[in-house]
């Protein structure tokens, strides 16, 4: 795919037509509502695997601002301590239903990017949201399990063959590559199955690459800015962490929407049609 001036102009035009700023704010709202049900469901499953809960938070700590992670960590620990296995029953169904709200909002945003109406029934559309939520949970669990076994394998090779500490450092750095690949797979699946349009993997790869790189860069830059220069607590008091979390969700939603819009523009170019609004 070639990024031309006409492509950039069309993307800027879609900012206004598709109200990308508003859609990003809507996604941030649903992400916030979905966050803790999603984490509860994820941590419930992780309790059966050799992955401590701290690994989930350490993954977030790499990208999210410190104030945001502190709020998530405090609430997750409180929920996990007080649930006493109750989420293994009906609570799991309620949690996954609530967590799928964020995915449903993404489906609506991508349908708007492709100019398609949601012709699928409510149950099919909601089922798709739940399946994509399950898929994301599975991929995240794999992403968390791999480093655990990766550290074990690296330590075994390190001790057996007597490699230098440099080898162990390189081995630990591979987690960044793993994180990139996992995120790319998540976005490819999202852009492939979420819109109410038949697409192929190669049709969504460009937007998935942009969303993956864009999300990682934006998250790291925003986290660095909040941790070193900004002080939301001084302005918003105890709500500072929530404000930082909402802004992070807002930027994350924007990267997702922009990736979908890029794929939609390329789709119009392949089909030789102009967008009519």
UniProtKB/TrEMBL annotation:
From which domain of life does this come?
Bacteria
- Cell location: Cell membrane
Span of the signal peptide: none
Primary location group? membrane
Q: Which InterPro entries match?
A: Virul_fac_BrkB (IPR017039)
* One cellular component (GO) term of this entry: plasma membrane
Matches recorded under Pfam families: Virul_fac_BrkB
Lyase found in the keyword field: no
List the protein's name: Membrane protein
Q: What organism is this sequence from?
A: Thermolongibacillus altinsuensis
